[in-house]
Task: structure prediction
Amino acid sequence: MSTTETIATGTDTTTGTETTTGTETTTGTETTTGTETTPADSSERTRGPRIGENAPRPDGVPKVNGEFAFGNDMWIEGMLFGRTLRSPHPYARIISIDISKALAMHGVHAVITADDVPGQKLYGLEHKDQPVFASEVVRFHGEPIAAVAADHPETARRACRAIEVEYDVHAPIVDAELSITAPPIHPDGNIFRHMFIRHGHPDSPESEGVVAVEGDYEIGMQDQAFLGPECALGIPLEDGGIELYVSTQWIHADREQTAACLGLDPEQVRMTMAGVGGAFGGREDISLQIHTALLTLHTGRPVKLQYSREESFFGHVHRHPAKMWYRHSARADGTLAKIEARLVFDGGAYASTSSAVLSNASCFAHGPYNVEHALIEGYSVRTNNPSCGAMRGFGAVQTCFAHEAQMDKLAAALGIDSIDLRLKNALKTGDRNITGQLLSGVVPVAELIERCVAHPLPAMGEVGEMMGRPGGAGRTADAHHIKRGFGFAIGWKNLMFSEGFDDYSTARVRIDEGQNGPVVTVHCACAEVGQGFVTLAQQIARTVLGLDEILLHPADTQVGSAGSTSASRQTWMSGGAVQQACEAVRTQIFASLAATHGVDPETLAIQDDHIVSVDGTFSIPVEDAVANKTFEATEVNRHVQTVRLDADGQGDAHVSFAFAAHRAVVDVDEELGLVRVIDITTTQDVGKLLNPRQALGQIEGGIAQGVGLAVMEEIIVTNGKVRNASFTDYLIPTTLDMPTVTIAALIEEPEPGAPFGAKGIGEPPTIASTAAVAAAIRNAIGRDITRVPVRPQDICL
Amino acid sequence: MPIERIAVGLTVNGCAVEQWIDPCAMLLDVLHELGLSGTKKGCEMGACGACTALADGRRIVSCLALAASYAGAAITTIEGVGTPDELHPLQEAFIDHDALQCGYCTPGQIMSALGLIAEGCCDRATIREGLSGNLCRCGAYPRIVAAVAEAAGL
Result:
């Protein structure tokens, strides 16, 4: 069979586009056949991996040999280079913008501002409140004001510096709590969302238990810090439209927003996914898509716009910093009587997904526990800080840190073991959460807790050489000062989009006769960001259709939306769409056999690579059944309808839930305030493992980001100004910071309604790992830790 | 004002090339001008390791390497390691261990690991230390270490 076919980005064979972008490399979006790397001239068909097997990534070979084209590898003859001018102030009125000097520079082809936006001036994923370019007011440090296209990146940079902007600088509003009552800094006001969840009778005297604990918790601003900076390439089309190649999480949402600002029909904006160098939520919103498109249409030339690392920190949204007050009250036996919380999430200058993030934070604020009464008040607020939106865990990370700290505190106050307290109150299938929703799916909270803590602890061992100690080679902890601590946490969140969102994915599946037999082409706009959807899509198609050669069409807007690669939703949504489209094609194959062989199609099934009748009288290889025929089907997969929460925060807002538990082991030098995370032992509720090896990678990677938030990652914002927009100052875990990850158990209990029973697995590892590390540090030093990331001064002062 | 370009002779993946370059250009950008885009730009400050290449067998962060100063040096990039049909054993090990997700850091990880193996690494702790200059935001570290250990014969 053949193996690696190459489609350069832009040579879209299905639409006849003639543009070729990219160097002579494989595109990031193109992935191919899929069995192991068989020689191309091999004539024997190899059985490709099915569901449940460790299929290799179809994009693995181009990724290890450097051929895989990421966004910033795209290149086309004659292209111009874009650059964005950004505000140096977090809050200011723009008095004037003079572009004349920049425009007069040799090599500069365009300088555009808000005046050059032909369509809507504002955009936004949930709420259109962000200007394409600031024209009257800048509301955060780094807000775009103008963009330049020039014949060289350096010329574009100098042209940006030649743009003269006069500001009337104001004192920024940087405290979310104060912003609630401060004069509005935007015509839409300062409050993105204010919500309550009232469960039981939290105001009644009976809601009060006999023991209560209170706490204030704070979480810093984390960055997704994906390694491949943002990039887009625009190519003007003769019909006045544009072809846009971009590394993103959701090309159809990008297209909607971009077209609206360009004043074009969405059909005039054709988008293709460029290779994505990580995302983690940071590519869900618009960054440079609209600017690139405007420069392209303005110049009539191809334009490439790419961010530097520094600009990337300013160009995308971050994880919401939050301040959270909690009060837990329990009966004498440990039953949770009441949980009260007040959550204030700093959404920064523009809305992004602040409303949905707050909803998630509030819905999961009680932890995976039964509680008799609850009163959760949540605010997500506009400030002059950087905008915040989606990041892995999406609101659940913040409240998990707080509710798990509270559970430990409550157990201590009650004088009972903190694990026993969790087990006593653990949610299970058939319970209801605080929004009144019945948890009808798999809810293995007690099992996750028990199996995680039952796993043997790593041996204490000798304190090793300096690289294994807190501080490593930099400021090495004295072996005599190291204290070891243990901490536990469990978290949960929703899978898929919630609160009534019309959430769906589309897949088109086609079978054609190829050179060496039938080829299945799967066309889905799902963004592959490293999570391994392309691998699963092939596994699903092979499993349903019994054919081995699966070609993945580039993800683009020539097929319906797949929704966002976020909310742990793509395996369920796009995996489900691929499954359904394959099943529809399978039905066509059976009907074709009925016509040619006189068999009853209702009695047919595909078993491995054969179509067989249930009575065993008919059998034919799938390959033969589809030979020289073409089949095609497009299916849309929607999950069950959810509802928006009502005024009391009640309603069936979510589709499904996933859970993960973590036990952290840390070494702490109390005098120097240094921490080394030694081990994270985890259990996770996965439904069904579709590709075990990829799943483990997701779990390890999610834990790495949770550990990062616990002990090192924070965007430092002082009076609205970002102080550490670089990888020398914003630290993410290196391989030395990575703890050992021990999988104590992955619970495979199929989730009803999920394709193949599989739950999304990308986010749960990030939710409680932060909280577990914080708990372990508390345990080591015997002091409270109420803020993450934990800084040296939080330990030693 | 445009800067006058200078001619620099480089040997890249065994091929001698003379390239007219900006005297201030970094090796990473010159490699891209040569059409070798496998070496990645992640931070432009030598902090992430995505741009790691080998110069005379030694690891360098090409984003901080003044191209003109590498005249005459033998540069090896990811394009010089294995072929799609015949991957280098280290590349095979990355596939077998699924030591990547988004793949952006992968060329740099592989070049760094090749340099490290040549320098000599005796155990996994040495590998972790030796690869600590290569960030992987997807957090594939355990798999990367396992892949490198296998390729190093550990």
In short: Chain A is about 25% helix and 25% strand.
